Structure formats: structure tokens, C-alpha cells
Amino acid sequence: MGNATITEVAPGVGEVRLGPLAERHQAALDDLVARYGRADHPDFLPRAPFAADVLPDDLAAALAAMRYRESPSVLVVRGGPVAEPAVPTPVHWRERPAAATVRQDFWLALVASRLGDPVCWSTLQGGRLFHDILPIAGEEHEQTGHGSADVLEFHVEDGFCDHRCDALALLCVRDRDGVASLVAAVDALDLGELDLEVLFEPRFLIRPDPEHLRGVDPASVPVPPRPVLFGDPAAPYLRVDPAYTDPLPGDERAARALEDLCARLAGAMVALPMSPGDLLLVDNYRAVHGRAAFRARYDGTDRWLRKVTVVRDLRRTGRRAEDDTRVLEPFAAVRG
User: Using one digit for the tens of pLDDT, what is the confidence trace for 77-103?
Assistant: First the structure.
């Protein structure tokens, strides 16, 4: 089945290095490409968790631990069975060749499906299930996956929404400059030094990022007060997105508590450069992620990742227009 070595990189952050994969793993990817053509095919998605039985045993065990024991909170899988494609990095996600990363997408889907069901937002990248994370000219300073010149501040994915993903997966397609992804897990925090009383109270306003708001009147989007920690105080879940979060007006204690939490997460940050085929998996409730700054060239050689987000239970999202869709509506429930 292939071999894997699992090591701890930092508290809550694990790494799996795949050994040489058997020919049958490569053949399985080839078979999926031939049978379905694309990884977002509606006939493939319900079968993905079963097709994932081809994964190496040790990798499958690590994914099961991440999903069911919530440990590790971050897992980087090195040495996946896909190589850098011949096509250049697109100048925009709209411009990507349709079949440019078909094998990468199937590998991404197989691994991610062990953590949940792939979903996407109607407001992001045209409602596509698999996203391109790449620099876009004119967006260098944006706090999104298309920025480059500034550090992408750490955050949970879509912290503004109660129906955000349980986990996200980022597959490296190209990264010749070694631009590091940044991660930190709640496991690294000394909870006794935090103002947990305040952080667990709804004293913070978490706004959507600009990508969600394109074509949407921001005034029409409610931003109710929310906590930034929740769940078990001994092992809390995170809802932290500093770039788009403010304490309630005049709440100085909440401001101090949030600043302290963010400083401690920043101090626990781990840099994870990735090579083509490497895959980063993040528990969106137990860890934050970001990205180092870099200088984009826009010459076809820039950093390029593929991304998919997953939820553990499609039925509980409450944001699907139809039973068989994976596209969620972020701002209004579409059924009662």
C-alpha cells in the first residue's frame, strides 16, 4: 500500500512523508481521470470516500485521527503522486485551462474526502468546487488568497459564517520560490494565560472578506456579535480572523483579550514551504492558517495552489439550494 512516516512538526502540527507509491496508486488516478474526466463530476463526488480506499494505510490512519480525534490539527502530506504541470500559472482563476490540474484535483479530492464532503460558496470563484490560489495583478495588497506583497494574516476560513467549513485542503501545484504557508494550532496555546471569560463571550464583530462581498451590498450583510473561542474551555475551537474582526465599540477588555490571543497565535506560527504534490490539511476549528509575503512575477512561474473546503455533514449546512448541490449561500439560509 506504500509507506508513510508520521512526525510532529510542532504542537498540533503533523507531517506525513509518503514513500514511493505503488503503481496501483498511479493507476487508480488514471482510472478516475478516464472514468469521470474531472474531480467535481457529480457522479464522482458521492463515490470519492470509497475510492479513497486506495490511499496508503498510514495516511488513511492519520486522516482518521485528524477527523475523529481532532489530532493533529494540521497535517502536511509530502510527496503526493502528482507533479508540476506543464501549463504556466494562470494570470487569473478565470483563465485556467480546464484540464490543467485534473490529476491533482483527483488526488486532492481523494485525500480531502476522508475529512468530509467538498463544498464551495456561490460568492467565490464563480461557485467552482476547486479553487485556484494564485497571485492576481492589482490585488497584491489584498488580504485574500490572491494577494502577494503582504503577509496573509492568519485566520480561520470564513470565520464570519456559522456554516463555514470544518477543514480545508491546499495542494501545491507550483511554488518555485518556496513561499511558506503559515499555520498555528490551538494546541500550542497556554490557555491559562488567556482571558477566556471574554474570548468565549459574543463581544466581537467578524466581517466577511472582500471576495465574498463582490456584487453584494455590505450594509445588507448582518454582522452579529460573536465569540472568538467556543466549545470546551479546556480544548476550545477558534473563530479568529484578525484582518476582519473588531471588538464591540468601547469594549477595551475585549480588545486586549483579542490582541493577546492573536499575539500568542502569531508566536506559535509554523512556516511550511511546499513542493509540487505536497498537501496541507487544516482543521478549521482547531487551527489558523496564512501565507508569507512574496513578489509575484506574473510570468507563468508564480506560486499556484489548488484548494477545496469540506464539511462533515452536508445536511447540516442549511445553505444549499438543492439536495444534490455542493454550492452554499453564505448570507441567507435557502431553506428553513
Answer: 999 888 899 999 999 999 999 899 999
Supply 280's cell numbers: 496541507
In whole angstroms, give the CA distance from residue 149 to residue 140.
5
Contact 328, 116 (CB under 8 A): no
Amino acid 80 reads G
Task: Locate all alpha helices (DSSP H) within the chain, ordered by sequence.
Answer: 23-36, 48-51, 57-64, 102-112, 196-199, 210-213, 252-267
Q: pLDDT tier at 57 (50, 70, 90 boundaries)?
A: confident
In order of 209, 247, 255, the CA distances from 263 in angstroms are 21, 16, 12
How far apart (Å, rounded) are the C-alpha atoms in residues 323 and 162? 19
Length of the chain: 336
Phi-psi sector, 2: left (phi>0), alpha (psi -120 to 50), beta = left
- What pLDDT, on a 0 to 100 scale, did the predictor assign at position 25? 79
Quick one: pLDDT at residue 26? 84
Which of the residue ranges 139-143, 261-265, 280-284, 315-319 would you say has the lowest mean pLDDT?
315-319
Secondary structure of residue 46 in the 3-state scheme: helix
Confidence at residue 106, expressed as pLDDT on a 0 to 100 scale: 97
More confident call, 231 vs 326: 231
Residues 6+ apart with CB under 8 A from 122: 327, 328, 329, 330
Q: β-strands 327-328, 117-121: how paired?
A: parallel
**Domain segments of the chain: what residues?**
4-185+270-328
Pick 4-185+270-328's CATH classification: 1.50.10.10, 3.80.10.10, 3.60.130.10, 3.40.190.10: 3.60.130.10
- The position carrying cell 497535517 is 75
Residue 128 dihedral angles phi and psi, to the nearest 5°: -75, 145
Residue 255's SS3 state is helix
Phi, psi values for residue 271, rounded to 5°: -90, 130
**Cβ-contact 204, 245 below 8 angstroms:** yes
CB atoms within 10 A of CB 55: 25
